[in-house]
Inverse folding.
């Protein structure tokens, strides 16, 4: 029997900060831990198979033994759907997360804000406030 492949993206960032990353995502940002290994961490936001997931791995944990450069902490924004961006902002503010902006309405119909994780990855928590015809 062949296991079923997932039908979604799994962004993988290389990081030497797995403990800080686990704490941020599981205790501050509201993600659940899916896989927790000494060299690999996988987290999901929400329940079910369709929940968005992020993966983090130590740069020297590749099976071939070759280390790769860690994520440099810039140039990537991951958008994360949430039921209420304002509520999520309040939660993260209370937890002293590194907030980069306040919630605001975007012309493409999202209300969103930015927060930075311990690796420098920017998360864009959003909810759709109106449909926009393209």
């Amino acid at each position: 029997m062949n296991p079923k492949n997932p039908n979604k993206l799994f962004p993988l960032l290389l990081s030497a900060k797995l403990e800080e990353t686990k704490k941020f995502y599981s205790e501050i940002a509201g993600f659940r831990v899916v896989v927790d290994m000494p060299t690999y961490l996988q987290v999901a936001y929400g329940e079910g198979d369709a929940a968005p997931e992020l993966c983090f791995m130590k740069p020297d944990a590749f099976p071939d033994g070759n280390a790769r450069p860690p994520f440099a902490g810039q140039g990537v924004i991951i958008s994360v759907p949430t039921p209420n961006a304002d509520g999520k902002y309040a939660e993260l503010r209370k937890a002293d997360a590194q907030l980069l902006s306040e919630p605001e309405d975007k012309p493409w119909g999202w209300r969103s804000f930015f927060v930075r994780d311990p690796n420098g990855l920017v998360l864009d928590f959003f909810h759709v406030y109106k449909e926009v015809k393209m």
